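Quiz preparation item.
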């Protein structure tokens, strides 16, 4: 195949670029209606509804939801059953993820003003978090590590994981990762019904404070629906990669980096920005040669044809400006002196610096979280981290002198807002 090519010097570039980078939305009104009905059913009937939906969607029939819980001994057995190199890979990734996220701890502070008033901030972990792990077309032990380890580092008391097991097939890698990450409880449940159970609780599934983890359109719709009853991490869209290259990296490396995101699904996006037209030709040649070798070639080709592009820019300054407009989930800067160009970037979920920093390393084992904002939301959102599993409480200890000075200010503002009880509450202390 040949990917589409754009050139910023073309008169029609802006229109074509806008069409290319328009967010791919998974919003479907029929899905929304189905999800709303499922959530309300689980809210009303609890375990009985979960049993019906698990039988219908996962083809697993049991008589109680308790039979869907995957105990710690089974998770430990899955870990023990992995080949030594498999355990070593999971352990190395977990160690790096934990080390990175431990550096995010902190945030408590307190100070005293001259009149004796004390102000501060207390940071506490959430009590219980729900983790959704996909289990349909593919299994993702890396998602278990990336979501559960920061929660554990934050000090979350209990992590409840749900993962669908179509036809009752349980993935050993996912269970081994759950064991390694120290997850408290695991249930063989999936779909909107699992999200509803976590949000509202049932006789068997405990209610959580926040739900994290990726899923299909039904899971995304369910998370959107229960937000406000519980917290959520984000509504994830299709995966994205944008590569800025000066034209001196091996074109096979760049082609494979584009493939690495395109293989997720047909809506994923892969874009290359380079000032070198001959490099675009070289990458096109690499794509044509390497694509037939890929097991997921059909998905890659569909993704690159629908939402991929090789774009010639005037220079690397223009490449950085375009990248900021896209605000990609993953941004690779494959150039000499990548730090120089990274300094010009304001919006990206994660930035990979230099020719050896492939996005795939970030997905699995570099250490920083792979749960990243998509669809341009990196303009205002951040990667998942320890702070997503903490809540902050303000501390206010006003002295008698502070009550007088602050009380007068509060009373004046309260009266301006026509809230006299507020004003009187402040006045009573300093007038006395």
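Solution:
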């Amino acid at each position: 195949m040949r990917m589409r090519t754009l050139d910023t010097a073309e008169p029609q570039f802006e229109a074509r670029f806008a069409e290319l980078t328009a967010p791919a939305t998974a919003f479907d009104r029929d899905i929304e209606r189905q999800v709303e009905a499922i959530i309300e059913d689980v809210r009303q009937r609890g375990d009985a509804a979960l049993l019906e939906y698990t039988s219908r969607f996962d083809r697993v029939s049991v008589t109680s939801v308790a039979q869907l819980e995957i105990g710690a001994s089974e998770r430990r057995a899955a870990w023990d059953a992995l080949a030594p190199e498999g355990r070593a890979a999971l352990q190395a990734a977990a160690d790096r993820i934990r080390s990175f996220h431990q550096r995010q701890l902190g945030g408590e502070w307190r100070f005293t003003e001259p009149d004796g008033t004390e102000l501060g901030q207390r940071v506490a972990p959430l009590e219980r978090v729900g983790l959704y792990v996909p289990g349909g077309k593919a299994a993702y032990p890396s998602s278990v590590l990336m979501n559960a380890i920061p929660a554990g580092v934050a000090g979350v008391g209990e992590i409840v994981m749900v993962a669908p097991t179509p036809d009752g097939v349980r993935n050993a890698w996912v269970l081994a990762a759950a064991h390694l990450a120290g997850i408290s409880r695991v249930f063989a449940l999936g779909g909107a019904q699992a999200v509803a159970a976590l949000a509202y609780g049932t006789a068997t599934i405990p209610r959580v404070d926040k739900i994290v983890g990726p899923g299909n359109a039904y899971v995304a719709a369910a998370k959107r629906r229960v937000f406000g009853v519980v917290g959520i991490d984000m509504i994830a869209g299709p995966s994205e990669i944008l590569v800025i290259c000066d034209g001196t990296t091996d074109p096979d490396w760049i082609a494979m980096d584009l493939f690495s995101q395109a293989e997720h699904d047909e809506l994923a996006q892969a874009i290359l920005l380079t000032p070198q037209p001959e490099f675009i030709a070289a990458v096109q040649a690499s794509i044509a040669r390497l694509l037939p070798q890929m097991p997921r070639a059909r998905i890659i080709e569909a993704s690159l044809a629908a939402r991929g592009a090789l774009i010639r820019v005037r220079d690397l300054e223009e490449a950085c400006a375009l990248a900021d407009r896209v605000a990609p989930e993953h941004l690779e800067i494959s150039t000499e002196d990548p730090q120089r160009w990274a300094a010009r970037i304001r919006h990206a979920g994660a930035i990979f610096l230099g020719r050896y920093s492939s996005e795939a390393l970030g997905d699995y084992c570099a250490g920083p979280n792979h749960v990243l904002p998509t669809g341009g939301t990196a303009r205002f959102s951040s990667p998942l981290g320890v702070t997503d599993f903490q809540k902050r409480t303000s501390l206010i200890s006003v002295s008698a002198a502070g009550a007088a000075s602050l009380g007068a200010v509060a009373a004046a503002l309260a009266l301006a807002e026509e809230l006299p009880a507020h004003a009187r509450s402040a006045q009573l202390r300093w007038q006395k």
